[in-house]
Amino acid sequence: MNGTEGVDGGWPLFEVFVRGKRGLNHVHVGSLRAADARMALTHARDLYTRRNEGVSIWVVRSADVTASAPDERDPFFAPSGDKVYRHPTFYEIPDDVPHI
Amino acid sequence: MATEADERELRAHFEETVAADRRVEPRDWMPEAYRATLVRQIAQHAHSEIIGMQPEGDWITRAPSLRRKAILWAKVQDEAGHGLYLYGAAETLGADRDDLTRRLLEGRQKYSSIFNYPAATFADVGVIGWLVDGAAICNQVPLCRSSYGPYARAMVRVCKEESFHQRQGYELLWTMARGTAAQREMVQDAVDRWWWPSLMMFGPPDAASPNSRRSMAWRIKRHSNDELRQRFVDMTVPQADRLGVTLPDPELRWNEERGHHDFGTPDFAELARVIGGDGPCNAERVARRTAAHEDGAWVREAAVAHAQRRARRTDDSGVAR
Ligand SMILES: [Fe+2]
Ligand SMILES: [Fe+2]
């Protein structure tokens, strides 16, 4: 994703998200260029769902995506790094307590 | 501006990511040479898919039955899709689509040498699916584990689709091989013409492929050219036997000791010539791609004008009227 709008007044870049089947989230599958969102949808259908890979498609202009900094070591994610008590394994409970 | 110490740390982190077989993602720091190598390789790969539509595309209207037409149409459409997945992957590295197209048309970026050979008869359609897509599969399966995430993910998608390509080709040949003597002759003739160019698809021998060691260290590539070529020969020989065709190589034989087939050396001088522009169809392929691009200009412009007009009519709620 890099907000490039293309030179020579080319078509903008869109990111494509496909829901594989009911009950699943939309998942990012790639990008494509199209003149507008409506065309991006039909192109996404032809490009990413030629073999029944999806039941629903979202497209969004790449330029409209706001993303966190790339590196997982980034301090952005630090707040969750030291909170072990958010995980069930943090708690010690006798082995003979059932269903917990 | 990153300081020198910053850059050292970023580079160390990059090397560690690659060495641990984790994926590099678009906005991660990466060495400029890694980025440039990937852009070149992915662009060349994308161009190959797009130019690769031409030899078979010629046969869509002439395929002998509606079934074969529909199959070939779907196959060629897949190749267009492969090109687009790959252009998308190249764009995550900061390459620009229009610029890549321009480089192809101006001959500043290459595509696979194999598509500069003509598809002379309908048997060629079968042989292209069997051997050319077969060789492409050999090359591409390991790329599903390439260190650059978007490239690897595009290759997963491509590889899923390629197996239909190879099977439809083999099935076509299988059908012809059980037809008339003339049809069997056509099959053998097509195999004779495509066998060596298919082996050249793996590139020059390892000793003459200096960049490939670095690509392997960066895990962009996972196997050497010669390893992949050997793998392809070993896979293909039994398929050829079953089909009843002869692969045109007098040196081809099973080597018990190595557990592999020995085979002759492709004419790498021919490969260099074809890559250099002097193949049977180079000029024709690029001219056709250029014409398609130029003839399509009004469609691209009209689509932009239409999109702009629609955007002007859109009200505040964002709903187009
Ligand atoms: Fe392909
Ligand atoms: Fe293919």
UniProtKB/TrEMBL annotation, chain B:
Under InterPro entries, the record lists: Aromatic_CoA_ox/epox (IPR052703), Ferritin-like (IPR012347), Ferritin-like_SF (IPR009078), PaaA (IPR011881), PaaA_PaaC (IPR007814)
Stretches that traverse the bilayer: none
A GO cellular component entry from the record: cytosol
Q: Which UniProt keywords apply?
A: Oxidoreductase
Q: What class of enzyme is it?
A: oxidoreductase
Which EC number(s) are documented for this chain? 1.14.13.149
Molecular function GO labels? phenylacetyl-CoA 1,2-epoxidase activity
Q: Kindly indicate where the leader peptide sits in this chain.
A: none
Q: Which SUPFAM superfamilies match?
A: Ferritin-like
Which GO annotations describe the biological process of this protein?
phenylacetate catabolic process
Name it.
1,2-phenylacetyl-CoA epoxidase subunit A
Organism, by scientific name, is: Streptomyces sedi
Tell me what gene encodes this: paaA
